Predict the structure of Acid phosphatase.
Amino acid sequence: MLFPSSIALAALSLASVSNGLNILMSNDDGFGSGNLRELYKILKADGHDVWIVAPATDQSGQGGRSDFSKLANLTAPSEFNLIPAGAPAIGPDPIDNQIWYYNGTPAACVFVGLDYVLPRYGSFKTPDLVVSGPNFGTNLGPFLYTLSGTMGATYAAVGRSIPGIAFSGSNPSVPYFNVTNATNQATWTAEVSAKVIKSFIDATPKGQAIFPLGYGANVNIPPLNASYTNPPIFKTRLTGNADTDLAAWNETTKTFHYANLEPQAAGINACINGDCNLPGETYVVEGGGVSVSIFTVDYDAPLNPYTTMVYNKLNGIATNATTPSRRKFKRSSVYTHP
Ligand SMILES: *[C@@H]1O[C@H](CO)[C@@H](O)[C@H](O)[C@H]1NC(C)=O
Ligand SMILES: *[C@@H]1O[C@H](CO)[C@@H](O)[C@H](O)[C@H]1NC(C)=O
Ligand SMILES: *[C@@H]1O[C@H](CO)[C@@H](O)[C@H](O)[C@H]1NC(C)=O
Ligand SMILES: *[C@@H]1O[C@H](CO)[C@@H](O)[C@H](O)[C@H]1NC(C)=O
Ligand SMILES: *[C@@H]1O[C@H](CO)[C@@H](O)[C@H](O)[C@H]1NC(C)=O
Ligand SMILES: *[C@@H]1O[C@H](CO)[C@@H](O)[C@H](O)[C@H]1NC(C)=O
């Protein structure tokens, strides 16, 4: 039987809204990114309440650095001239007040989102999920984990007890206003990202956090094209065929630039945590697959004979006590920030 289309639509939207999450998005490419805004649109259409707090300018390569603007105003226009010089260093997008720019690093944007934008202006205060990206370009392996601002925004959120997922695509930079149809790399990359998010959400009982405390995910997406929009998805690990850098010296310019170390370093590829049978994310994405690696922000070495051996080298100077006596100094006397 045929329903009047408005009733069918209402039923559909009710069904999706009931699963709706409160989501904070960020990235490192800036708040005008086509990838970011395509995923924002899809997540909203899927019934989630989505807010963006993202850098005013490209903040790639900042890792987890949390750098706040020293000035109340922008000294230069934001990316793509969306916001003029002299405007406040933080504010809403001119055409969408759920999208905010801030003149800081990606991790700083997440903190500003959690501690300023959402509490003061948001339709919710604490997100159920932080989504970063999709980045323009992949972030594969532990070296990029620490270097990438996409990752930095993600592990900043995980440290704040909020599940975080980083997405990185293989497409070149495109401003959101140049994405004018649904058959382009930014939209395909966002669609694959949304599919991964949906799987995590759909498999989580209502009211439960999608990840345990301290957990996050790193998702990388291969190059897509009109006949390759639905690549296979693999459970992966960060290590395994991962690259790290070397300092390459240029005799002409007398400067260094980075280059991938060949052959790949053993140190960055040692499988210490996680399932060593899973393929490395670098390998999977190079083969045209989507990688999904699960990480934790507990960077402690696992309890095993190697760790014990290393700790034992301190036996002459350190105690083994598992419950040390309280430190004798006040927290405020500890010098924690440069
Ligand atoms: C900074 O922005 C505020 C708000 O737009 C404006 O009133 C003020 O004049 C600006 N200051 C400078 C130095 O541009
Ligand atoms: C947006 O598209 C226009 C028209 O194709 C092009 O001239 C412009 O360079 C693009 N902008 C950016 C920032 O890529
Ligand atoms: C969609 O936009 C892209 C550029 O973003 C362009 O290359 C492509 O031809 C467009 N496709 C259609 C069907 O209009
Ligand atoms: C699309 O991507 C697939 C997978 O990488 C590749 O095999 C194919 O050649 C690409 N097609 C075009 C037209 O680029
Ligand atoms: C060194 O820099 C010069 C000038 O940018 C460039 O032309 C040359 O290709 C570089 N050499 C190497 C080995 O990268
Ligand atoms: C700490 O434990 C190691 C064995 O794990 C032992 O050899 C060592 O003597 C202990 N040190 C102290 C100070 O108790």
In short: Residues 72-73, 86-88 surround 2-acetamido-2-deoxy-beta-D-glucopyranose (ligand 1) (CB under 6 Å). The CA atoms of residues 180 and 293 lie 32 Å apart.
